Amino acid sequence: MANFGHLVSGAAWNIGGKFIQLGSSLVALAVIARMVGPEVYGVFALAWLVVGLFEVFVNGAPTDTLIQRKEVSQGHLNATFWVASGMGLLIALGIGAISDVAARGLEGGALLAAILPWRAAVLPIQALAVAPSAILLRRSRFKALAGAETMASIVSNLVGISMAVAGAGVWSLIGMELVRVVVVCFAVYGLTRWTPGVSMRKADVVDLLAFNASTWGSWGLNYFGNQMPRLVIAAVLGAQAVGFYALAQRLYDQVKNIVMIPAYQVVQAGIARAQENIGTARRLTEGTLRVTGVVACPLFLGLAALAPILVSVVFGSSWTQAVPIVQIMMLLGVLSAMSVVQAAVIRGLGKPHWEILYEIVYVAATAVLVVPAATFGLEAATAAVVLGSAVSAPVLAYLVRRLIGLPMRAQAASVMHAGFAALVMAGTVWAGGPLLVSMMPAPIALIALMVMGAFVYWAMLRWSMPATANIIGSLVLALVRRDAGAIRASLAGLRD
């Protein structure tokens, strides 16, 4: 595919930005988590649960709709701006009005009732940024968007750390979210120079709503499936258990955002352009699966192996019960290396209603497994979440095969070769961790294990995937030299 290298080199900037965001977010999360403790963090996670569902309707689905369309008019952009902004404002006001009732229902107490209206305040601000963000993605300006998001992450994390040090407690988390969405909003308007107007036709609104209906259903079911375990854990095990689970999920999401969100954007934008060329869509999908497997598998499995040392060093001794939860949660990463790309294919081809089938299976499997598992403890509930995702995974692979003809076995193979190398690396790091900790301070041992893991993974790639290892070496050198042409050539080679 001629433009694969161009698309993914743009996404490489996005991945670089995500790494910076991960570093700054981990610092902020470490400072705040140490100060507020698992139970208070669990209450904040419940606020995220309430508001996050509506973020799907205000931000996620409308952005997807604008990206997927072959052509977008000013009327479509204006309609999205006004509909999303109106929904965001009304939902935020509604959440504020029922915050006491919601807090009682979720057993979050007065603290949850107090923070819910402020957490909901992000919704109308996010809605303002939908149209200009979609414009940047349609233009494949991944580097610009990565810069905006990275700047927002750094500024918001600095604000959060400052508030935490000043004694703001859980309010430092609220302040971080508000600052982040405000900075992103200003940045995307500055980058696009787009100005909303009132010119739109009824057909523009109806056209968008028709597609959004399926997208909302797909996103909403996915969100419910992901967050339902928090509800079950809160009801069965309490707010502190929610805090441990939420920390593990936050780490998983942070790592997932490094690779999978850029991959999602690349595939969705690329396939939306190539809807009439199934062969091109198939090559783009298989190439992106291979790239995400090579990058995502060592990140997730490596974090699982490092968790016993990482959690105590970064978050403190009060969070040690989260270690097995983090380890189990990271197993989702290997599955997400496929599922996020597969979802992008389905949505990019304008078939979000197809994905609803997968989401129904996913939600049903998760519910059936998590509810009884929670009675056996937090580790069992988390394992049930991973198992539910694994049980439903073949549905997505089947839908992708139906759409673009890429065999289910080929989809899995694109990721599993790198997964094997990452598994050997993770086993080596996990086995060597106790020995190194006994010989040196834990922070130094953590760094040494990271370096050792990188060398083991590279050696395994050289043995099991020599061509891929050579291309990655060329890519690293090209990134160091900032040679855009060589970056695109290396990424195109990784696809092949």
List the main descriptive attributes of the protein structure presented here:
19 helices; 496 residues
Question: How can the largest sheet be summarized?
Answer: none
Measured by DSSP, the beta-strand proportion falls in: under 5%
**CA-based shape:** globular
DSSP strand count: 0
Low-confidence stretches: none
Number of helices: 19
Report mean pLDDT, rounded to a whole number: 81
Q: What's the gyration radius in Å?
A: 22 Å
* Distance separating the two termini: 10 Å
Helix-strand makeup class: mainly alpha
Which percent bin holds the helix content?
Answer: over 70%
Number of separate domains: 1
Order of helices and strands: HHHHHHHHHHHHHHHHHHH
What's the helix and strand layout?
Layout: H1 4-68, H2 74-97, H3 99-105, H4 109-120, H5 122-128, H6 130-138, H7 142-165, H8 171-192, H9 202-237, H10 239-273, H11 278-315, H12 323-330, H13 332-348, H14 352-373, H15 378-404, H16 408-439, H17 442-464, H18 466-481, H19 484-495
Helix pairs in contact: 1-2, 1-4, 1-5, 1-6, 1-7, 1-9, 1-10, 1-11, 1-19, 2-4, 2-5, 2-9, 3-4, 5-8, 6-8, 7-8, 9-10, 9-14, 9-15, 10-11, 10-12, 10-13, 11-12, 11-13, 11-16, 11-17, 11-19, 12-15, 13-15, 14-15, 16-17, 17-18, 18-19
